[in-house]
Specification:
Layout (H helix, E strand, L loop, with lengths): L1 H13 L5 H12 L4 H8 L5 H26 L5 H4 L18 H15 L3 E2 L5 E3 H4 L19 E3 L4 E3 L4 H9 L5 E10 L11 E11 L4 H16 L5 E5 L5 E10 L16 E10 L1 H6 L8 E8 H9 L6 H4 L2 H4 L6
Parallel strand pairs: 1-5
Antiparallel strand pairs: 2-4, 3-4, 5-6, 6-10, 7-8, 8-9, 9-10
Helix pairs in contact: 1-4, 2-4, 6-11
The protein binds 3,4-dihydroxyphenylalanine (DAH).
The site of 3,4-dihydroxyphenylalanine (DAH) has 11 residues, from strand 9 and strand 10.
Length: about 325
């Protein structure tokens, strides 16, 4: 039996598998139920008792050696992803270079406030059709926003545009037909505007939409009031001015007391003590109908704000172009924000 073991040891030490299949065959030959090792273990029963201890150890060593040979050779055939499977990608990074962009910081902070109120984040495409950006939102056919002067068109008839507002995500979510709805939709929007300190052709908005039974203007006011206290600090005042949007009725714009002069009057608030931060209103029954929601049963509110505008007020930035220039002297100021 010792001779047999030594012969096997010599064989396996020189074994080189040419491929995965050959290696598997090797495993079957030696370690399967009908393999060489099983045969040896049954021979072992005839070994006289005084030799058993020594033979037992030899057999176990042999089995371990075979296993080692298999494991060693398996490495040759692992694909890159398999061989990296021991990497723990969730481990924290030791040193992080760079920092978040101020617009991302502001977006995340706003998202967090609304998430705590039970809103979930929704998304929609930046390249949209006329229906989702305009028609479903009750824009009349001759509305100026439908003009190429104001909107970037990808194709004309059928009209495909770069979305001019995140209100299109309202339609995308309502279409899914799951009620109630409580979403916020942050994202990039595009308008055909000349670039200046106060305007840009690309900017960011956050849309909010809440649809359920018995949603009222009081719910809208309370939600936005809560947001303002959380984001701009307790004691910040809010006021609502009547306004017009095709997709809301009643519509309003919301101002907050100027967080720079505290309402005393300064350049930022043009000496009024108030700054406008968003548009909002009760969803027009027409848009609910366009998305197959029964306006007799459900009501809702919506709001939309510009992230750049909120960031400018929060950090007292007076030129919108700063956000897009990637000037490190600007970005580095937000490293610890
Ligand atoms: N979509 C509007 C804009 O881009 C902002 C807005 C106003 C969104 C009122 C709303 C809303 O949801 O109710 O100017």
């Amino acid at each position: 039996m010792i001779d047999k073991i030594e012969k096997i040891l010599a064989d396996i030490k020189t074994f080189q598998a040419e491929n995965k299949e050959a290696l598997e065959q090797f495993r079957i030959d030696y370690l399967s139920k009908k393999g060489v090792m099983t045969g040896l273990f049954s021979d072992f029963k005839q070994v006289p008792p005084e030799l058993r201890k020594e033979m037992g150890m030899l057999l176990n060593d042999l089995k371990n050696t075979i296993q080692e040979v298999i494991e060693e050779q398996q490495k040759k055939f692992l694909t890159t992803t398999e061989s990296k499977k021991d990497l723990d990608l969730s481990l924290p990074v030791h040193a992080m270079n760079g920092s978040r962009h101020p617009l991302s910081i502001v977006r995340n902070e706003i998202n967090d406030i609304f998430k705590r109120l039970g809103f979930v984040v929704a998304e929609g495409p930046e390249i949209e059709d006329d229906f989702h950006v305009f028609s479903a939102l009750n824009f009349p056919p001759d509305h100026p926003a439908r003009d190429m002067q104001d909107t970037f068109f990808v194709t004309k008839s059928p009209d495909v545009v770069l979305r001019t507002h995140t209100s299109s995500v309202q339609v995308r979510v309502m279409e899914q037909g799951k009620l109630p709805i409580r979403i916020i939709a942050p994202g990039r929007v595009f308008r055909n505007e000349a670039i200046s300190a106060r305007a840009h052709c690309i900017f960011h908005q956050i849309e909010g939409l809440y649809i359920d039974k018995n949603v009222s203007f009081a719910d809208l006011k309370q939600t936005l009031y809560h947001f303002v206290q959380e984001y701009f600090g307790e004691g910040t005042k809010v006021r609502f001015r009547p306004s017009y949007f095709p997709f809301t009725e009643t519509s309003a714009e919301m101002d907050i007391s100027c967080n720079i002069c505290g309402g005393e009057g300064c350049n930022i608030c043009k000496h009024t003590g108030w700054v406008e931060i968003l548009g909002c209103g009760i969803c027009d029954p027409n848009i609910l109908k366009a998305c197959n929601i029964d306006p007799e049963e459900y009501t809702g509110f919506a709001f939309g704000m510009g992230i750049e505008r909120i960031a400018m007020l929060k950090y007292q930035i007076n030129d919108l172009r700063m956000f897009f220039e990637n000037d490190l002297r600007f970005l580095k100021q937000f490293e610890n924000a």
